[in-house]
Amino acid sequence: MTLLGELYAQKAGMRLFPGTLNLELDEAWQIPKQRAIRIEKEEYGGRVSVSLVPCRVFGRSAFILRTDQNDDGTGRHGLTIVEIATDVKLRDTYALVDGSMVEVEL
After folding, report:
1. How many CA atoms lie within 13 A of 103 on its CB side?
2. Which of 10, 24, 65, 100 is 20 to 30 A (C-alpha) from 58?
3. Is-contact 29 23, C-beta < 8 A?
4. How far apart are CA 43 and CA 73, in angstroms?
5. H/E element holding 65?
6. Model pTM?
7. Beta carbons within 10 angstroms of residue 9's beta carbon
8. Tens-place pLDDT, residues 37-47
9. Distance of CA 61 to the CA centre of its chain
10. In whole angstroms, what is the distance from residue 6 CA to residue 46 CA?
């Protein structure tokens, strides 16, 4: 496991599947700073810092994961895209396809 993967596991309290499920929202959404778990780029020698916000998907513990660049609108994903990370590959586990509706509980 990579150093970043170890940091995710340590801070999230679970090993996260190495990939996210990207969801498109109807409206822009930004990380609530007071609820975010932070992984600073200096902690793993990376280029971007990341926020993790605890949530639930399909009754399963998960995290909304977003880089600082995506959260300030300068990253690869706009503010209407959220990335969901958990311990399984959500697409396979729940037979999701592009366009599937997914409820995320904060």
Report:
1. 3
2. 10
3. no
4. 23
5. strand 60-67
6. 0.92
7. 14
8. 999 999 989 99
9. 12
10. 14
**DSSP notation for 21-53:** EEEE-SS-----GGG-EEE-HHHHT-S--EEEE
What is the per-residue pLDDT across 50-65, written as a single tens digit (0 to 9) for each? 999 999 999 999 999 9
For residue 85, give every residue at least 6 positions away whose Cβ sits within 8 Å of its Cβ, in sequence order, or none: 8, 12, 16, 17, 19, 20, 21, 52, 62, 63, 64, 65
One-letter amino acid at 39 equals: I
| Residue at token pair 């639930």 | 56
Give the residue extent of every domain in the chain.
3-105
Domain 3-105 has CATH 3.30.70.890: no
